[in-house]
Amino acid sequence: MSFGKLYTSEGNVRSTAIRAVAKANDLDLETVKTEPAEGLSEDYLELNPIGKIPSFVGSDGYTLIESIAIAIYVTSQNEKTSLLGKTKQDYASILSWMSFVNSEVVPQLAAWHKPLTGRVPYNKRNVDDAQAASLKAMSVLEKHLLHHTYLVGERITLADLFAAGLLGRGFQYFFDKKWRSENPNVTRWYETVHNQPIYSAVVDKLSFIDEAIKNQAPKKEKETAPKKEATPKAAPKSKAKEAKDEDEEDEDKPAPKPKHPLEGLEKATFVLDDWKRKYSNEETREVALPWFWENFKPEEYSLWKVDYRYNDELTMTFMSSNLIGGFFTRLEASRKYIFGAASVYGVANDSIIKGVFVVRGQEAEPAFDVAPDYESYEFTKLDPSKKEDREFLEDQWSWDKPIEKYEWADGKVFK
Known about the structure:
alpha+beta, five-stranded antiparallel β-sheet
């Protein structure tokens, strides 16, 4: 009997553990190939409005759209499973490690390898930052695994299966012979998990790289112009064929996007993309910020301080950083009209979120209301003629000074 459908793509790292546990539990889990990059149907977006994978639909109609939740649900179908630990503390620790790798490691690994493999534009500073963040997160695992065979307890759990799947890209592109010699604990653990029958049944044979992919822009393939030849006349189409082609074209054409409220403004002389490149490629305080003040046009752009309204609800700083990341993701429609940075200041259970944005036009709302959660933030206009406002902006974009009683903990840039 069918257990349900898993919507995912081939090789999706967040689905590896789900497929492994489903197979071990003898669950008939159908895989439905889903490639967000190739476009998603309206039916899928109803199931998962964020448009990400994996997603699960049970044969009983039950749906889930987050990989950790799906993995736990599939694992729990075996009431005698040991993969969820023996105690409540085990279970909480399993969730903790799954969340850590999913939130702290995978996004950084993606930001590290995607520019080097041509999936997103290359920017050396971004790659350097992602590399440093990835290695910092991996050092947490290395230290923990010095005294532990597995992530939780003395037997393999869902945390190990899930984490090993997510770290696959690291071993594919970066964790070379030198890195493995410097991180023997993670390497030993990864080999151990990979060779477990429950895991090896759904993945390729284990292999390691000798040398990491280099930190440089991927080479573009040279295109050789074909020799000009007389173009043969196309055979006339039948009316039925023409009608079919027209139908296919209509289906492929995306619906016209609604105009952005800032689209009607006159073309600005301050080119925001020039500033974004300057910020990305030059030292912030020494070069980039002097360039910004020299070229900034207050009649075309405005500056806004951003404060999170619910700082008293913030807990772990990495979760607060993820909160910023989610907000930035939902600002995508305004990318060409804004630039900014927001940071978490403080420590666990005592932190705040602040930031500064430069925005096209003189109002904040047209740029930020594309994000459903923008009302969770308070926007205060800054005056570039005031020294204290200029200094606040510089501190927010440099990440090298504390604010009030709080030290800088983590930050993200929207560009």
